[in-house]
Fold:
Amino acid sequence: MIAARKKSRVDKDFSTIFLAFFLILSCGVFMALKAETDSILRKKIPGSSIIYIPSGKYLKFVTFGYPSILADIIYVWAIQYYSDYNIPDRFKYLDHIFSIIFELDPHYLDPYDIGALIASYEANDLNLALKILDKGLENNPDQWFFPYTAGHYIQMKKKSQKLAQEYYKKTMEVKGAPDIVRRLYANSLYKAMDYQRALQAWLEIYQTATDDRIKKIASNHLYRAKATIDTQNIKEAVEKFKGKFGRNPMDLSQLVKAGFLSSLPKDLDGKDYLYDPKSGEVKAPTIPWKR
Amino acid sequence: MKIGAIALNTFKEAIRDRILYLLLFFAVVCIVFSRILALLTVGDRVKIIKDVGLSSLSLFGALMAILMGVGLVYKEIDKRTIHSLLVKPIHRYQFLLGKYFGLVLTLLVMLLAMSLIYLAVIFLHTFKIEWTMFIAIFFIFLELCLITSVALLFSCFSTPILSSLFSLAFYLIGHFSWGLETLIKKVKPGAGKTLAQLLYHFVPDLENFNFKMEIVQNLPIPAKIYLFSTLYGIFYTAFILALALLVFRKRDFI
Structure:
């Protein structure tokens, strides 16, 4: 009886050792196999499941009250997905993916910013970037950053000053927008060759500036805008003079005498404009930024 | 022999379970529903049917394995029928393996039934039998075997509700463990990275059994991966079963 019990205990101990050994062995084997399977390249179509993701509008209903956490997850995933340069057509569903995030959490600001950045610089799709930023402003009307970024992208990518102006104007209308936006707006007016409005805008900035540095910047821009308007007027008068007399005037005072100018304009510092009678060129006496 | 007898009894008991038929019903509904879903798409309709069908097989198969596996041992303990079983000349490993293989057999039958319906739905669209689908189905079966072993392990020491949650967590971890790879890439070399790498190799990677996309998209699959994935499934299942046996041996029923 005792011998049988002893044998049973020995058997149990032996099988326990065997089991422990088997556990370690199988664990080692499956870990090695895992490394082996990882080393085999499987052809994947990354992001192929994206097409099954429904619109955020419908997805919201199945989040059981946790749409923002789902938005976080999709956003984190999207960042990883768009950082993978091995997926050449990764931008195909950019609009769709970010729209889902915006629908799930319209007040999550980072995805608008990053989505627009990816669209503009990675996908080279400025219209999509603008669409994303427009959506950002629509959902968050108190965020000046969206139209501000849109204006910046347009100036950088499209070089359309008129459209940039519109966005800067929108930015200025948002409470809390930084002062620089007014200057960017005035500058875009100048670049769009709307000199009169640019002059007005810079004058307003100059008059309301409380900082000496800003006053100096505004003054230089004012100088440039005024000089551009004046030299344009003088050049037109020179052309008319040439048309009537068949030659350039000897000096600018002849333009006033001939009635092409009511008075001879002076630059913002009260200096005369430089005139070359041979070529008919008119220039400001000072470079604005060296005043 | 004893394992076979227990397995057969487990199978007979399992096929009488209503949960099994409820899940089978929903799986069939999903497979048939894929036809309606395909109507809403633009482009390749058959792809949608194949995708939804295979996913239904995998998902409902996993639910079957979990919901039935968690009660395998627990029910015997709860109803005290285990007492009358263990007094017989049956080793505990025979009891446990018998239970396991019984459920695996049930799942195999259910999977085959669902696969037949699935292939029939595809046949109605393409008028050909897609034999390659059986590769994906085989690996779904391997995945189910692993999940069953996990459910059995939890069934040895926990209640069915907790075991279901644990097994479901195992299933989810298994399908998202690849995310650790991204983490490893971002972690600076050191103890943290080594630990993450160790964890990455230890946690189950059920994506090793996921060939659905490759099969549906007709992508080339390296032959080696079939072998390694199969071996991975077998060894992981053996590891979990050994663990279950270790736990089960320590339990005192009297």
Summary: Chain A touches chain B through 24 residues (CB under 8 Å). The longest helix of chain A spans residues 2-39. Chain A has two domains: 51-178, 179-291.
